[in-house]
Design goal:
The complex is a heterodimer of chains A (about 525) and B (about 130).
Chain A lengths: L4 E4 L3 H11 L6 E4 L14 H7 L3 H4 L8 H4 L6 H4 L10 H4 L2 E2 L27 H4 L10 H11 L9 H4 L13 H12 L1 H6 L2 E4 L34 H10 L4 E4 L1 E9 L2 E8 L5 E6 L1 E4 L3 H11 L7 E3 L4 E7 L16 E7 L8 E7 L16 H11 L3 E7 L8 E5 L5 E4 L8 H12 L10 E2 L36 E3 L14 H16 L3
Parallel strand pairs in A: 1-2, 1-9, 2-5, 3-16, 9-18
Antiparallel strand pairs in A: 4-12, 6-7, 7-8, 10-15, 11-14, 11-17, 12-13, 13-14, 15-16
Chain B lengths: L4 H10 L5 H15 L4 H13 L3 H11 L3 H15 L5 H4 L6 H29 L1
The chains are: A alpha/beta (about 525), B mainly alpha (about 130).
């Protein structure tokens, strides 16, 4: 194949598409804004030892007070994205692609690796039930899941969740659970038949977190501070693959370019944008264009190219409940300094009475700043400090995700001033399963109560999708075919989350990646 | 003993003198923290700092009653700045078993809360 191929975006989907071409001996060009940071925390070993001796201001707050944005601006961003070392991932997005929204927490990234540079690395295979009404079956994704599993290094275990996540032999060994997660899991195993009858299943997550050295990257050393640090070698980030492919000369990579739209001349696709450093115009011809700019920015590119400020397209995100879990058995216990400070376990709720399958990510809280817990307790500041010290080691949190379908979608449109406008009503989540989950968790040693469970603002899950639905027979200019091709736009393919008009409660990232690779592979084969 | 806004807030929370570097950082953060507030809010906040000795009580009452948001934000900022300091490690991180201490802590909560709320409420009512 001698056609010129351009991929817009160097995040998870763009890099996966590039891998699909590289496997067929084709050299694509990735065009990316590609923000990076040269700041990196160098201290090795347990980070709690480091903080005993060192001022954390540069790691935790930063000169521009970015780590305080939740306090100063009321930002609802996860602490990982506001930490000074990770803030580059989202910085500039309000200028490069402003979004207006009163009720949707829209997060965009123009960094190399995209939002995956700070993701939770939950990588789940979708089965046919997860794919719902999409014209895509899981067996067509399986070879790409397998390839990417090897590229990434996914840890996990074939356990009670294999019926939902798929049984597979490519998993690295599971990582060491934190003390509380182990306590919960052991209590689950003792009475699991009863829990399962009530629809509650618990097991290891599938994470892009290395438990043994892999592809030149080091395995997890449980040194903690995952919230504060960037480019942690054992947490997969698409930049790892991108940099390797560039180094090996297998792809071309152009950074510093913000693309605005595409047009056509003499049968060729012409993409246009600008250099973000000097503002100079950028123009490039290509035969095939894959758009992997992230659902929101991809939508903007499509609407800009069609000069459409009227259409409102659907946008999905997983409704999310934040469930604090208190473990009475761990009250007053020492902080588990050597825990892996992200998702330790997954919970699946699937019952015949409930229409929806829910997924919970049970997260260890040893990594965020302790100050995050200040004022979470309705007591005076001095007692708050004591509670932080004595009670916070007994806490985990569960993010409980609901699936999302077109009837729950918000809307996104381009305004005349070239901003995106997103509207989304508050989600209405089915609460009956929550009661069952709360009861089950109580029997596993974790206390919580519906009154302290918080519903997150729409958009908080940062699992955006569904703006350009995938259809077997496309009829609208804002639909894509099963092979990702945009309706009546030969050679233009959408390969990120935008075509997924239904998202299950499982994190969509791995499926977006596998689909991007599948589309690239099909293009390479001339299908 | 140091005085001034930063020193008073720090002492209310950590019960010790503020390190110079924290004082400087707190002062540097003030324009950004205060930017979203009106002149009235600022004036009321300054009165609270000048006239009330138990700022922790005033902050607690404000938090419960949903008033004096600037005072609440300033406390939050100070907590983060304080956590950065290695000398405060043991204030935030527990490294020893302490179930008895924790249970004792729970027993003090109702008394402390009623006392602090009343004290803060009266101080804000009478002095501001």
């Amino acid at each position: 194949m001698k056609k010129e191929i351009v991929i817009i975006g160097g995040g998870a989907s763009g890099v996966s598409a590039a891998l699909g071409f590289v496997n067929r001996g084709i050299t694509p060009t990735i065009i990316d804004v590609g923000m990076r940071t040269d700041r990196k925390h160098q201290a090795v070993g347990n980070q709690y030892d480091y903080r005993k001796e060192n001022d954390l201001h540069d790691l935790m707050i930063g000169d521009d007070l970015e780590g305080l944005s939740n306090v100063i601006d009321g930002s609802s961003l996860p602490p990982k994205l506001t930490s000074p070392l990770n803030n580059y991932i989202i910085s500039g997005s309000e200028v490069l692609s402003p979004i207006r929204s009163s009720n949707f927490s829209a997060v965009q990234s123009f960094a190399t690796g995209g939002l995956a540079a700070a993701w939770g690395a939950g990588l789940y295979r979708y089965n046919d039930e997860d794919l719902g009404n999409l014209p895509l079956r899981s067996d067509s994704l399986e070879p790409y899941y397998d390839f990417l599993s090897n590229e990434i290094g996914i840890s996990g275990k074939n356990d009670d969740l294999s019926q939902f996540f798929g049984e597979n032999n490519t998993l690295l060994p599971p990582f060491k659970l934190s003390n509380k997660a182990e306590h919960l899991y052991n209590n689950y195993l003792k009475r699991k038949k009863k829990f399962n009858r009530n629809g509650v299943f618990i097991g290891y997550p599938r994470l892009g977190v290395l438990t043994r050295d892999h592809m030149g990257r080091k395995k997890c050393d449980y040194s903690n501070f995952e919230t504060w640090l960037n480019d942690i070698p054992w947490i997969y980030n698409p930049t790892h693959s991108l940099d390797r492919l560039v180094k090996e000369g297998k792809i071309k990579y152009i950074s510093g370019i913000l693309l605005d739209s595409w047009g056509r001349k003499d049968g060729e696709i012409i993409i246009e944008g600008k250099n973000i450093h000097d503002g100079s115009p950028f123009r490039k011809n290509t035969d095939i264009l894959l758009i992997a700019a992230g659902t929101i920015n991809t939508t903007k590119l499509v609407l800009r190219s069609k000069k459409d400020t009227k259409s409102r397209l659907p946008i999905l995100d997983n409704p999310l409940l934040q469930v604090p879990l208190i473990f009475p058995a761990f009250l007053g216990s020492p902080l588990d300094r050597s825990a892996f400070g992200m998702t330790n376990l997954n919970l699946i709720f699937k019952s015949p009475e409930s229409k929806k399958t829910l997924q919970g990510s049970i997260i260890e809280l040893t990594s965020p700043p302790r100050s995050l817990f200040f004022e979470r307790f309705p007591v005076s500041s001095v007692l708050n400090l004591k509670m932080i010290k004595m009670v916070s080691p007994s806490l985990l949190a569960m993010f409980l995700y609901y699936p999302s379908s077109p009837d729950e979608a918000g809307s996104i449109r381009l305004t005349n001033s070239n901003e995106l406008e997103i509207e989304q009503k508050d989600y209405v989540t089915e609460r009956a399963p929550v009661k069952k989950i709360v009861r089950a968790l109580f029997r596993m040693g974790a206390w919580t109560h519906p009154l302290i469970i918080q519903q997150s603002k729409p958009g908080y899950a940062i699992h955006y999708a569904g703006t350009i639905p995938m259809k077997t027979d496309t009829t609208s200019e804002y639909e894509s075919s099963i092979n990702g091709e945009l309706h009546k736009e030969p050679g233009v393919y959408i390969v990120d989350g935008a075509p997924f008009s239904h998202i299950s409660a499982k994190n969509l990232s791995f499926t977006i990646m596998a689909n991007a690779m599948r589309i690239a592979d099909n293009i390479s084969k001339g299908n | 003993m140091k005085n001034g806004e930063a020193a008073k807030i720090y002492r209310s929370i950590f019960r010790k003198d503020i390190p110079d570097i924290v004082q400087q950082r707190f002062e540097n953060s003030s324009p950004k923290v205060e930017s979203a507030f009106t002149e009235n809010d600022l004036s009321k906040y300054r009165k609270i700092i000048d006239r009330i000795s138990d700022l922790a009580a005033a902050e607690y009452t404000s938090r419960i009653t949903g008033t004096n948001q600037l005072l609440i934000k300033k406390f939050q900022v100070m907590i983060y700045l304080g956590e950065c300091m290695p000398e405060n490690y043991n204030i935030f991180i527990n490294e020893k078993k302490g179930l008895v201490r924790t249970l004792f802590l729970f027993t003090t909560i109702p008394f402390n809360s009623v006392y602090k709320f009343t004290k803060g409420f009266l101080a804000l009512k009478i002095k501001i």
